[in-house]
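Researcher: I've been going back and forth with a colleague about how carbonic anhydrase might be arranged in three dimensions. Neither of us has a model we trust, so I'd like an independent prediction. The organism is Hypericibacter terrae, in case that matters for your notes. Sequence below.
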Amino acid sequence: MIVSTRPDANPLGCLCQEHCLGHPETSDSLSKSERNALYLSRRGLLRSGMAAGAAGLLLGAGVEMAAPRTALAQSTMSPDEALQALMDGNQRFISRKMTSDKEDLAILQANTVDKQEPFASVLSCADSRVPVELLFDQSIGHVFVNRVAGNIATSEIIGSIEYGVAVLGTRVLMVLGHSSCGAAKAAITAKAVPGQISSLYRYIRPAVDAAGGDLVKTIQANAEIQARLLKESSPVIAEAIKGGKLKVVAAYYDLASGKVALLG
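Model: Here is an independent structure prediction for carbonic anhydrase. You can compare it with whatever you and your colleague have in mind.
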């Protein structure tokens, strides 16, 4: 590589068009396209070196860096293994020993641009206090999440979940209720509300009746009822269960402790 000896040369050497490729020893012998290609390749080398140097500095400073986990291969996972992966992640969340927050998001994004391979589907409430990927310590591409107030199985939600099962190949489907659910509270009181909020009530009403109006029991019963509805109303889900490719469970998330407990 020819390094410019001009007094105003870039101190990084031969890495910019103005100083390096304008040098008399190179400019006359290269075409414009060749000069541009050389410039871009050298700039790429510089960026790679800077990235490596930054990583070295982080490691030298004692900053822990985790290699990004690849999307879990559903084809080799059993439904029980997929469920265990969720529960293990929740335990890491509870103990604050999470691993997904140490992964390189840029690499994760790049690895999932062309495809997604989630191992789990989760139907959860839209409540802002229930961040599904976070509480299961899962990163980009691992969980196919459907969220709606009251974690109810409407026809649109069922269609979305069927896509996760039939096309994406998720191995476990969890219906996740949570403590202090506002949708459940509203369904219990059945007060008049503006707009279409009351349209949620009819999906949760069976749980209200089964639980006698108790909030926690209503939330838990609702998760179980929605899980049963998914199994009974969807031929796609039923077929996956019959073939041993899918497990459907109901669960309850406690906001205070962070713990997800299986129901039934």
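Researcher: What would you highlight for our discussion?
Model: I'd start with this: Confidence is low (pLDDT under 50) at residues 1-27, 32-63, 65-71. After that, consider the following. Residues 74-262 form a domain with the Beta-carbonic Anhydrase; Chain A fold (CATH 3.40.1050.10).
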